[in-house]
Amino acid sequence: MLYKKLIKTITTFALSAAFSLSAWANDPIIIKFSHVVANETPKGQGALLFQKLVEQRLAGKVKVEVYPNSSLYGDGKEMEALLLNNVQMLAPSLAKFDKYTPKIQLFDLPFLFDDIKAVERFEQSDAGKSLLKSMEDKGITGLAYWNNDLKQLSANKELRLPKDARGLKFRVQNSEVLDAQFKALKAVPRKMAFGEMYQGLQTGVVNGAENPYSNIFSQKINEVQKYITESNHGLLSYMVIVNTDFWHSVPEAIRAELIAILNEVSAEVNKQSHALNLADKQKIIDSGSSQIITLTAEQRSQWRDAVKPVWKQFEDTIGADLIQAAAASNNP
Length: 332
Ligand code: LMR
What we know:
Elements: H1 2-26, E1 29-34, H2 42-57, E2 62-67, H3 78-83, E3 89-90, H4 116-124, H5 126-132, E4 140-150, E5 152-155, E6 169-172, H6 176-184, E7 188-191, H7 197-203, E8 209-211, H8 213-218, E9 227-230, E10 235-243, H9 244-249, H10 252-287, E11 291-294, H11 297-307, H12 309-318, H13 320-328
């Protein structure tokens, strides 16, 4: 009697386990993709295109949920969420990785790249690609680079020469290199989450910022900054990353399709991003909110000279070879 009861219990258990296993096997894999910018930016557009192509090609197998504008996690929290597998995909700015790999600080060095084409050349080089894999031991796998554009300085006073920035408080991303860059200008850097920048500028907690046009326009930064200096002094690009354990748990055939989709999306993002930024620059001009200041070659070289010591300061942490390889991408 006891024996029969035991068999029944085991059978019931086995059946329900098999059922839940098959239910699990039939459920789509959920990829939560969280980010901090607007849908209308290069990253926002990339995330939506990724979602759309996955829906078309992997329907029923994978579902991508996109959370823009810090709506799920803001700066500071999103990386932690990825490591806990609460989100599976992110595309943080390259300025936000220094806790995980010091080498990626390379991308923040001021005046490193002459234009976005040079950035792309470096990212596609062996040295650039190797950085995608530099955080695997921390549980983070890099899959692709998405570029936004070069950054512009903004303030409520005209910034034409480095001395104009002296004493001003600038919002910076959580990056030691960017901190050093503003200190080299004798300005005061303030690390602040992206989602808090508008209010920080509006209330005067900070006086200035550095952003590409797409982030300036989509966050309405131009409404609280009278002047934008077209300095093109630094880069804002992203690494699309996944939680390494999650990534390895995805069946190989699906992973291969996800990579193919991502490669297609990355090519599209990087093809469109500069044009999108130029269109946003035009919208800022049309709005009449701010004056865009164009620097002469002589003025721009004064900015370059003022911040160049930052390269030496970070040479040991980043590696002289890597800096040289990146700088060489300006002269193919
Ligand atoms: C910033 O914090 O300024 C950027 O990293 C935001 C973004 O993701 O473009």
